[in-house]
Amino acid sequence: MKGDAIVLLSGGLDSATALAITRADGFRCHALSFRYGQRHQVELAAARRVAAAQGVASHRVIDLDLRAVGGSALTADLAVPKNRSDAEIGAGIPITYVPARNTIFVAHAIAVAEVTGAGAIVLGVNVLDSSGYPDCRPEWVAAMQEVARLGTRAGAERRPIEMRAPLIRMSKAEIIRAGTALGVDYALTHSCYDPDGTGAACGACDACTLRHAGFEAAGVPDPTRYAPAPQS
Known about the structure:
- Helix 2 links the parallel strand 2 (27-35) and strand 3.
- It is built from 8 helices and 5 strands.
- With 232 residues, it is an alpha/beta fold.
- The protein has a single domain (3-218), classed as Rossmann fold.
- A 5-stranded parallel beta sheet has the order 3-2-1-4-5, sandwiched between helices.
- 37% of the residues lie in helices and 12% in strands.
- The protein has helices spanning 13-24, 42-54, 86-89, 101-116, 138-150, 153-157, 172-181, 206-218; strands spanning 3-8, 27-35, 58-63, 120-122, 162-164.
- The chain is globular.
């Protein structure tokens, strides 16, 4: 056993795979999720399902109010972009970016790691299929490593908390293949930014587009439950 790791678990495809990889690497995993005012809170139910299926040592959910900050289609009354092309998805930073969200999440994860004695924090961030989010880049992960090293008791008195981003340079297809090999049940996960009232995925937001394309490229059946297409 390599020790304890705090795994940020949104309930999505990437974080579920990062959790499986971390378990396979020999860590005892503690899942950490956030109820931050996101419009797609159904993802928290998915996080609970994934955590239970993968047998985490613990799972805590921290409440934050990022709606008080706003500035994102996920935390404010702004429309979620739909039916964008690959070129559009890859250009610029979309309105679904939540200002400083991952930095805020990592700050809380560092605090939990300090209190619990965990030696690692695991992030499911990925630079290739990140929709242009600046807090999914290797440079950002390196900066958070410096924060953990310089701004914590663990960094000052003992070995610094390690930031791990096992998916950082993997394509969505590579992520799905890796998770499938480790037995991840992707039917338990949720990626959609704008699900309907039953939790079914819209099939048209950037997250749905990237997810479905990843399953196709991986040659793995897409288990996502999509909402019925609107009648014309």
